[in-house]
Amino acid sequence: MKGITLTALALALATSTHATTLKWAGTTDPQTMDPHAVISAPVLGFLNNVYEGLVRRGKDMAIEPALASSWEPIGNGEGWRFNLRKGVTFHDGATFNADDVVFSYLRASSEAADTKGWFAPISEVKKVDDYTVDFFTKAPNPIFPDSIANWMIMDEEWSKSVGATVPSKEEGNAATLQTNGTGVYALKKRQPGLETTLTRHNDWWGEDVGNITEATFTPIKNPATAVAALLAGNVDMINPVPIQDAARLEQNSQVKVHKGIEARVIMLGFAQQAEVLKYGADKGKANPFLNVKVREAVAKAISVPAILRTIMRGNAEPASQLVSPAMRGFSEAYAERPSFDVKGAKSLLAEAGYPNGFSFGLKCPNDRYLNDEAVCQAVTSMLAKVGIKAELDAMPVRTYWPELRKDNFDMYLLGWSPGTFDHEHPVRFLASTPNSEKKLGSWNFGDYSNARIDELLPMIQSEIDDTKRQAMLDEVTGIYQSEHAYVPLYIQPLVWGTGKNVTLVQRPDNFFILRWASVN
Amino acid sequence: MFNYILKRVAQSGLVLLVVGLVAFSMFRFVGDPIDNMLGQERTVEDVERLRTELGLDLPFIVQYGRFLGDAVQGNFGVSYRQGRPVSDIIIERAPATLELAVVSAFLAISIGIILGVFTAIRRDGWLASVIMTTSLIGVSLPTFLIGIVLIYIFSVDLGWLPSFGRGEVVQVGFWSTGFLTKSGWLALILPAITLGLYQMTLIMRLVRSEMLEVLRQDYVRFARARGLSERVVHFRHALKNTLVPVITVTGLQLGSIIAFAIITESVFQWPGLGLLFINAIQFVDIPVMAAYLMLISVMFVTINLVVDLLYVFIDPRLREGGL
């Protein structure tokens, strides 16, 4: 009798653990398995399946409890207290507790860690008991829990035993190739640049999980190869689908195309301090972009709907400000973008003293954003219609950033995805006067500067009251919008392709969260 | 004779040095690795600090000197991208490229010679003209296009062969081989054809013209006059004499098969050295680029050196002259 029950049980187990595998492909291999070494979307997106943070982002990007079951402010903005989840185990079986949080804080804020910037507002981290940790901030910091959704917790004992106490980007260490997280999937096999296999962690604490038991990621750099692999059924999911192939794939009954909107805003920036133009026929003459009317004329001369219709094939949405409406702190009051108005642009140029236009240089990447070069070509021809002639110089991103850092541009294209999913992020990086000591404006290549924005930023950062905070963000938006500091163009689309039997959730940060995917 | 060999070896060493120098002088134009290594939150100071740490602020000639100094000790540095020793990565990737190259070379040589002989013997036949015309495709179409077309026919439409990758591999010591599994062989077919097609047409055309030349020779006429069968004339006498230049050329071509595997590997996501190099360019992974370029030039220089030395044994004038 006992024998029979055991056999039945074994059978039941065998069927319930029936393996469902998913193979997926993306353009870039995560360069490391160390969650603190590099802040890059391929790394953080991949590791979100393996490691977990105190908080995590849900399907709508709102933060929700993960390894912390709850959190509350300490005192009057002195910091945040996190109450940790009990009964969580790492993939190697070790128990998760407050020591791991403190260790992960020290590790992620160490000099060698890319993530150290996330902890700049922190003055001290204190373990209260085994399942309570206090984070004290230098100033009140309302968005701190939001800002650490990608901060992943590592096991203290494991990290120490394999000699990976701090991340090492240049030399690599054990944590570059191995993992020990608490996430839904554990790393089974890692071959850098070739193939990475994940397998289900059966002791995971949560419930919201699909049916995939094993998943293999292959980086496929060549988009045509990736599309062919999907059509041939050799992979179950590819990200991205080239925009120009999306319509063709939609006709195919074997595959599904999933479309969404990313967090990334594509915009044009200007040289805001340079006295003279650096490129084009008018090289050496006074820089017209110093005049706000000229910048406004550029905004009016570009037909964003036309760009979206032709180049993005209807897959993107126009942008009015430095963040998309899905982000926290989006300014509803300034959701209108300048309308396409050739006449208006021409008269603005005439008022600014350029009735016959001028010629300048436009820098653009050709492998960074979806169809970036084509967008710049469209911008060039639209600007030509109001008499300003852009000399387009498109280049791979590996030479693009150094050029921008050297101020070698009159106008440039930039995409920005706020790491914290908050409007404060682009204000800090793009709209603040560059100040390396305070780590402000580090991507503000054009040196846009407004004293009032600089004054408001620290106030926004420490304002606890949401209404007051939003009022200040609205003011900032109003300023940079009326000064046309940037010309926001559109929000980049997300286009993924899968086999017809795959269901998944597309999150605006372009992370593929495996536990939300199922193969039927 | 000894002097000659010494001189050739010294010349080869010089060629290697110059290749390295040219490579290092060009890395600056490939781009800046720093932005790929630091995230969005980096400051300008972080950029400068890392640049100094990696020695990228030094003149290229100094960087080259450091590379050479380490390389002669067998140390090719650590990949900027993967944070692992370059030599480990290269050893890991080399089997994929070498297996692909060997199979493509085998296909190119065997099919190339068969078709070459056939088109030479039946030079006026309709089939020979068809082969000659279609062989133009092999020479004129870019590898990338051939690869994609093959994928669409055999993987997407017919579903016979995998569209990318190497299939299942078996680890034999440090060597990962695809020769021991069925999926490994299936995965090899399309990339091998794509990579070998150009060489195959080249060999075919070479064999054909050499063969036609040989068939006009007096000794062939004598052989025929003696009443030998066409088979013996073609295969024992004519083909043998055709093969001498063919072997020289194919030897040199083997090097270019490995070097030109880059495009084929990227179309088929074939996990070899070519793909490694393409990715290294994208991320400006200078240690990987440098090691790969040196490896390829060592290979070419060695092949040339061996060919040159073989001439010494074949050509008595070189020996006696003591050049």
Automatic annotation (TrEMBL), chain A:
Family, as annotated: Belongs to the bacterial solute-binding protein 5 family.
UniProt entry keywords in alphabetical sequence: Signal, Transport
Source species of the chain: Marinomonas sargassi
Pfam families, A to Z: SBP_bac_5
Signal peptide start and end residues: 1-19
Protein's name in the database: ABC transporter substrate-binding protein
Domain Solute-binding protein family, residue spans: 63-435
UniProtKB/TrEMBL annotation, chain B:
CDD domains referenced in this protein's UniProt entry, alphabetically: TM_PBP2 (cd06261)
Highest taxon of source: Bacteria
Membrane topology reported for the UniProt record: Multi-pass membrane protein
SUPFAM superfamilies: MetI-like
Keyword Transmembrane in record: yes
Gene3D superfamilies in alphabetical order: MetI-like
Keywords: Cell membrane, Membrane, Transmembrane, Transmembrane helix, Transport
Bilayer-crossing regions: 12-30, 100-121, 128-154, 185-207, 243-262, 291-314
UniProt main location, coarse: membrane
Sequence ranges assigned to domain ABC transmembrane type-1 in this UniProt record: 94-311
PROSITE patterns, sorted: ABC_TM1 (PS50928)
InterPro entries: BPD_transp_1_N, MetI-like, MetI-like_sf
Keyword Nucleus among UniProt keywords: no
Compartments (UniProt record): Cell membrane
Protein family per UniProt: Belongs to the binding-protein-dependent transport system permease family.
The protein, known as: ABC transporter permease
Species name: Marinomonas sargassi
